[in-house]
Amino acid sequence: MAETAQTDRPTPAGDAFDVDLFVIGGGSGGVRAARIAAGHGARVQLAEEYRVGGTCVIRGCVPKKLMVYAGRFAEEFEDAAGFGWTVPEPRFDWSVMKRRRDAEVARLETIYDTNLMRAGVDVEPQRAVIEGPHAVRLVDSGKVVRARYILVAVGARPVKLPDVPGMDLAITSNEVFELETRPERILVIGGGYIAVEFAGVFAALGSRTTLLHRGDKLLRGFDDEVREGLAEAYGKRMDLRLGRTLARLERRTTGILATLDDGDTLEVDQVLVATGRRPNVDGLGLDSVGIAPNRSGAIPVDAFSQTAVPSIYAVGDVTDRANLTPIAIREGHAFADTVFGGKAWSVDHGLIPTAVFSTPEIGTVGLTEAQAGERYGAIDVYRSSFRPMKATLSGREDRMLLKVIVDVATDRVLGVHILGHDAGEMIQAVGIAVTMGATKADFDRTIAVHPTAGEELVTMRVPAVTKRPQSVG
Ligand code: FAD
User: Fold this and answer.
1) 148: alpha, beta or left? (left if phi > 0; alpha if psi -120 to 50)
2) Is 386 helix (H, G, I), strand (E, B) or coil?
3) Taking Cα atoms as reference points, which of 43, 51, 44 lies closest to residue 26?
4) Do residues 130 and 308 touch, judged by C-beta distance below 8 A?
């Protein structure tokens, strides 16, 4: 983690600056950076144009996970019957869920605000833009703040499909949290984790759900068998349409008519587009300092999150490195320690445990089977696919899949992939071992916890596949 610092510190004479650090954006990365920098004694100001907490807290990870929990009760009620319970016809009230979810989000927002205040950060509830290497303009008040350093932590925003007629009828992941009622019929477009998670939520809550993705598999970048396992499970829960695209949307008196590229039509009450996100750099003033966004619209930075302008840094989704909350937080922390704490370190983006809160859930760390096969001489793939114990009485058909991918030459575990109940919780723990460089022998000598699904991780002895490069034969 720790590396040598580069900090090319601008050192103007006297107290030429109003603040040591101006943070633009009060999301995961900005809030962490502001608090840590203030803790190191810096005078910090932060501008947030919407709500402190950012995407994750206000309209991302947190409210989404609460909706995932809401959806999962449906299966729990069903499964309970197999264990002898008589469950009266369950009824779901969207407005109760929404009210309680929104209250929880508001509670967290207050905590974020309070923590910033306690750290001594001055929060400006308005938009801010860059006016120079050391100048930020507060848009509402017009005030210009002179800052020794500027941290851009403005995140990203959802984008719609630009070429599809009728796109104004669709909502994005921002508006989905504002829906006052549960749509009876919903079309979700996209194959990434956000589309997959919301399709799972709506299907579980009883909406007739269609998930449309132009690719032939969901979740690009994940292990192929996990992708196939999820598609199989989703195919039983919703109308899954792969390899198809949306041609247009039209308003009808009874709903929205979606026409697909093959001429097929379906009428729905809501269309949720989750096909991509773009860094929030429009009108930010990057041109005033000569920072050119890259092709994905992101701000290019070095390992220490420094841009081409020495006094301006950028962290989080606006840099499009790994668009996850723990990464934004860690980048913000590393920036603050490096620039204000006299302790230079940078974030290792190489090994990132992560989860998809679909049902069944996905947890993954390290290389997929395909990636490991390409990068390593020979790999062993240990695989276990089974019906979890709970499913024996509940009658649920989902299978659990666990894969461990091992470098034959060193015995090191290169990747672990889990599809099934609590995969996200499991992968957090497994991630520690993999990050420490655990070998398959380390997994093998770990005593199993019985009876659990996770014990398969330490009891698989015979590889399902051994892959060797062509040249080796
Ligand atoms: P953000 O959190 O987006 O914060 C940026 C802030 O800057 C925003 O509050 C914005 O209003 C503000 N801002 C923008 N421009 C300006 C300006 N000019 N002036 C002032 N303020 C400005 N990640 C996970 O790790 N796990 C998950 O389960 C997960 N689920 C997600 C679900 C959804 C639906 C979405 C959309 C994202 C999810 N993410 C998840 C991703 C995660 O939310 C982001 O990676 C994270 O929030 C990035 O943090 P950030 O600080 O870069 O930006």
Assistant:
1) alpha
2) strand
3) 51
4) no
The protein residue with its alpha carbon nearest to ligand 1, atom 12, reads: 25
CA 153 remoteness from chain centre = 16
Listed residue (280, 70, 278, 319) closest to 177, CA to CA: 70
Beta strand extents in 161-243 (DSSP E only): 185-189, 208-213, 239-242
Residue whose CA lies nearest to ligand 1 atom number 19: 127
Pocket test for ligand 1, best of 325, 327, 333, 352 (most atoms within 8 A of CB): 325
- Which fold, 354-462? Enolase-like; domain 1 (3.30.390)
- Ligand 1 pocket check for 24: Cβ under 6 Å: yes
What's the rounded Cα separation, in Å, for the pair 309 and 291?
7
pLDDT tens digits for 180-229?
A: 999 999 999 999 999 999 999 999 999 999 999 999 999 999 999 999 99
11's tokens = 């050192």
Taking CA atoms only, the protein residue closest to ligand 1 atom 35 is 60
Query: What burial letters (b/e) apply to 210-219, b meaning 16+ CB within 10 Å?
Result: bbbbbeeebb
Q: Among this protein's residues, is 213 annotated catalytic?
A: no
Atom of ligand 1 nearest to the CA of 198: 34
Q: Is residue 23 in contact with ligand 1, taking CB distance under 6 Å?
A: no
* Domain regions of the chain by residue span: 19-57+97-157+278-340, 167-275, 354-462
45-76 pLDDT, tens per residue? 999 999 999 999 999 999 999 999 999 999 99
Q: What is the CATH number of domain 19-57+97-157+278-340?
A: 3.50.50.60
167-275 and 354-462, same CATH topology = no
- Name the residue type at position 242: L
**pLDDT tens for residues 217-245?**
999 999 999 999 999 999 999 999 999 99
Which of 123, 154, 194, 427 to mutate for ligand 1's pocket (most ligand atoms within 8 Å of CB)?
154
Catalytic residue among 40, 134, 421, 450: 450
- Residue 290's φ and ψ, nearest 5 degrees, are 80, 25
CATH 3.50.50.60 fits 167-275, yes or no: yes
Tell me the two tokens of residue 217: 């598999």
Question: Nearest to residue 26, comparing CAs of 148, 145, 111?
Answer: 111
| Residues 342 and 392: beta-carbon distance below 8 Å | no
- Does pTM top 0.85 for this prediction? yes
Q: What is the pLDDT of residue 7?
A: 47
276 lines ligand 1 (CB under 6 A): no
Q: Are 419 and 368 in contact (CB under 8 A)?
A: no
